[in-house]
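Priority: medium. Attachment 1 of 2:
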């Protein structure tokens, strides 16, 4: 049986329970051997619009996310620093090509949220992305788009949260516990991110 590999890219600024729910559901529903949370180095679609937290911090938070609530690694979830090691703008097509080379014969599944579907055609070499991977769309509260032929749908219990909302909440000192795991919150405190004092 060929290896089935999920690729779930993101800025993860910060990672939240919505991301975790998607990764866990993808692994189970699609029968994936592994789901890689690929942390973008420079999310070129977002970086012109706002300041992005340093990649090393986002990587550490993503690693904390996949330790789960009990601090134990969640089976089948991994964090990839491939785009950070590569540097520069993070192109999904390059990541998929590298994964193909590193895992000959593997089937790749690229998991994206519904909010990204309409813009997908503007991704770097989007046609090539569709050739390299099966695209899997996961619904996200507040977003609708047409289904595309040949794309799969993933059914995940809705988690209505975004990193943008959490950055705001953290900066305002509001509660984030409903949407973030404790390990990620601890990482944020240790690193003093989002205006949260290291001693808080
Ligand atoms: P921001 O608010 O900063 O734009 P975000 O919450 O959208 O960030 P990203 O790291 O950009 O988080 O998202 C990575 C991937 O996870 C994308 O495919 C996105 O569509 C998906 N995603 C993020 N949040 C959710 C959610 N609550 N439910 C389903 N998918 C999600």
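Attachment 2 of 2:
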């Amino acid at each position: 049986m060929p290896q089935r590999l999920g690729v779930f890219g993101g800025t993860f600024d910060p990672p939240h329970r919505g991301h975790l729910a998607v990764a866990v559901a993808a692994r189970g529903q699609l029968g994936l051997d592994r789901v890689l949370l690929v942390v973008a180095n420079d999310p070129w679609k977002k970086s012109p619009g706002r300041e992005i937290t340093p990649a090393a911090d986002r990587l550490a938070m993503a690693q904390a996310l996949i330790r789960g609530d009990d601090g134990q690694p969640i089976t089948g979830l991994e964090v990839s620093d491939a785009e950070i090691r590569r540097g520069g703008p993070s192109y999904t097509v390059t990541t998929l090509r590298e994964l193909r080379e590193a895992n000959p014969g593997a089937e790749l599944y690229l998991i994206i949220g519904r909010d990204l579907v309409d813009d997908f055609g503007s991704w770097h070499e989007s046609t090539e992305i569709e050739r390299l991977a099966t695209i899997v769309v996961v619904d996200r509260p507040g977003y609708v788009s047409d289904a595309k032929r040949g794309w799969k749908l993933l059914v995940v219990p809705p988690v209505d949260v975004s990193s943008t909302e959490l950055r705001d909440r953290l900066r305002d000192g509001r509660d984030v516990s409903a949407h973030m795991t404790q390990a990620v919150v601890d990482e944020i405190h240790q690193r003093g991110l989002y205006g949260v004092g290291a001693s808080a």
